[in-house]
Every structure is written in structure tokens, then in C-alpha cells.
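step 4 of 6: structure.
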Amino acid sequence: MYGIPMPIVIVFAIFFWSLVSAGISLFITSLILKKYINAEETHCSIYEYSTEDINYSRKLDQVLDTEKQDLMFEYGNDPYEGKKHSIPEQLLKNGEEL
Amino acid sequence: MAVLCKNCSGKLIFNPALQLLECKACGGSFRPEDIRDINAEAHSKYYDTRVYVCGHCGAEVITNDTEASTLCVYCGNPAIVFSRIAKQRRPDGLIPFKITKEQALDRIKNKLFTPLTPKEVKEKATFSNLRGIYVPYWVLNADFTEADYITGEISVGRTTIKKHYSRAGSIRFNNVPIDGSKILNDNISMRLEPFNLDEAKEFDEDYLNGFYSNISDTSYEELKGSAANRCHKIYSDHMLKSIPARNAKIDDSVYWIDIHDDPVYMMMPVWFFSFRYQDKPYTVLVNGQTGEVVGTIPWEKKQVYKIAGGIFAAVMVTGLALYSGISFSHAGINGMLNNSASALTIFGLAAFPMGLIGIQNVLKKLSLAQSEEMFKFVKKRQG
């Protein structure tokens, strides 16, 4: 075949087909193992913890690649900065022990 | 400390099936709220506990009755010793155990035990390896703001185009439970959710009888980091569903949280099944209220190799048969066989990376159940 000696063709074919077989074997084995895995993602939706939907201040499709920096810059400051809250004693105590 | 039966002074244990305190000596049963705490005034802010320390992983396990701890619930090591009697800050509330030890063990067996589960692990599924622990949680309300830069794919004719989206928004979250124990990995604890807070009771140490408990050891900053990550997960999962593209994923994001005044300190019921297999520790958790099972059981490697080897051999033989058929058959059949061989080849080559990723994901999930890993992987919180 195209001047390549037959034994080389056969060895190459076996190697190639072994690769294909290994791929299929790996894929099916991973599916079998996955079936027996239970560390699933939590099934809690947003409505488990909120009575409202997300209040969007920006909802743009088809933005340019360069707009990422602008977005991160615009929202990069803590909007809740400076707000003081009452903190339970246990959490304060744990902080002191660190 | 241990609450005694008012009929015979026997030790009272909380029975999750009946939601009553039962006396093992005389069979009497009482509602926890009906048991008069003779030290009520002294216990108004604190309660007495027995602290055990694991010499292997350093975890502290706390009991409030006279039951001695025999193995660490976190790493399964028996090197656990009584440390001290300590006064603990009284939590605001708790959800009592509803799932019994028998039910928890049945759920683990039904959900996780498969033909691939090693016999040695099956033999370890006994009551002595199952521990009921009240895990400390902080239940909080918070305002949350997030901005995301998202990438997704859309099809235009036969071409796939990458598109970018930007989203920013805010939302108020209510009653989000965040585990307050450093030793419990956030990736594990969030899988135990949801807890039904409608069934929460005012904290009464009588509910702890027969169980262990842990105290919150996180600081406010750590709690804030965990809460921000948890809210980000809930928010982004929901937001990504609104993106009109395939394979939408967040390229970059920034998020902020404002926890409202005084998060509530709660105890949540969790069953821990700890065991060692081939010198590695494993922990499977069961939500003591809902029965949700979280964790992964190791599998018998020999069995897996047999399956993988069997599939490999079957595909090899099929391939050889197909190629032999191509060589020796007539032109019509030859074309069909050629197509089958090509399809199998393309599938096999595409399946290789998918299989590798699949196996990697499975191993990653298995590592989450390994409690020493859990211990090392102690919460990485946003400061």
C-alpha cells in the first residue's frame, strides 16, 4: 500500500484501533462510574431563598470582547461598603481566637 | 449534661422517629419541652458539653451526655480522647433529627451500594460507624449584587459563533444556611440543603441527647466569605439559565454581599458514616431531616478493570471483524461495513477525551468524600 511495508501497516492499524477501543472503553466506563456517584449538585433553586427574581441593572447581549474590563471596573466597588451591622458574640469571639 | 428520667432517673435519649425523649430503663417517654431544666437560669446563655479531640486530624467532637465517643466522625480514626468539659454558647435554635439511625443506614445502602462496592466497605456499614451530629449553621438574610461577563455559543446556519453577554443585578436572599464549622467543606455542606426551617425549634439541649454536636468556629469575615460564595452559586446558576446561548459560562465576575443584622445560630442534624478503605478515609453524610445522601463510596478496582477490559476487547473484536469484512466481502456490503468502521473510529477518537474528562470528574467527586482531603481542603473563604 503506497510503498509502505505490510507489517508496518498492520502494526499501525492495530495501534490505531487499540486507541479507538481504549477511547470507547474509557468513555463507557466513565458513564458506568458516574451512574454510581452521588455527590450531586444541590437542587436548591434561587426561589428556595428568595421571594423575588434578580433585579437586573444591566442585561446586554452581543457585547464586545473589550467590554469586560469596563464591566468589572463599573461594578468593582463594594456597594455596601460602610454599612454597620450587629454581629453575634460567637462570631466576634471566633474572630478574636484566629 | 445528661437529662434523667423523672420516673426512674434513667438516661433519656431523643428518638427521632417519635420526636420524644425515651428512657431506655423504664420505657417512659417525654416531650423535650416538658422536661424541666433545673439549671435553667444558669444555662440561659451557655450549656455544658463534653469535648473529645481526635489525635489524628485534630477535630473536636462534642457530646452533651455520658456516651463516650469511640471514633472520629470526620476521619474515622479511633485515636479520639476525652479532652474536657466545656461551656458552650447556646445556639438560637435547632432542627431535631427526624431520620433514625436505621433509616440513615438504609438510605446509604440503597443509594450508594452497587455491584462495584467492595465487600469490605459493605461490611463496614454498621450502626457503630454511623454518628448523628448537630452541625452548627448560621442562617442569614442578605442583599447581594453581582456583575458577570458571560460567553456562550450560538448557531448561524452551520457555523457556531461565540457571543459575549454582560449581566449585573441584585437580589435579597432570606434564610440562607451557611455551615459554621471549618472542618466541614462548604462543597459538601451545601449539598445537604435544603433544610426545612419551618420545623426548627427553640434550642433545647435535651434534643442533643444521644447525639454529638459541633460548635461554630468561624469568624464573621469567614462567614461573610462563605455566604458570598454560596449566594454567588445560587445567583449564577439561575442567571445562566436566562442566557440565550449554548454552553454559557461565566468568564469573569465580581460580587458583593451585605449580611443583615444578627444571623441566627442554628444546629442542623446530619448523620456521618465514616470508614477507612485501603488506608484512605471516607465520609458519607445524610441530612438528618430530609434523608438526602451526600458522598461517594469507593469501588472495587478489579471489577472496574474487568468492565473496562471487557469493553476494550469487545470493541477490538468488532473492529477486526469489520475490517476483515471489508477485505473479503462484496462491494455492496463493503460500503456498509466501511461506513460502520468509520463511524466507530470517529466515535472512538471523540470518546477518548470525553472518557478522560468523565473519569477525572468521578475521581474529583470521590476525593470530596475523603475526609482527610476534606480536612485539608478546609474552607477557602473570601476574607
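step 5 of 6: annotate
 - Strands of chain A lie at 55-61.
 - Chain A has a mean pLDDT of 83.
step 6 of 6: archive
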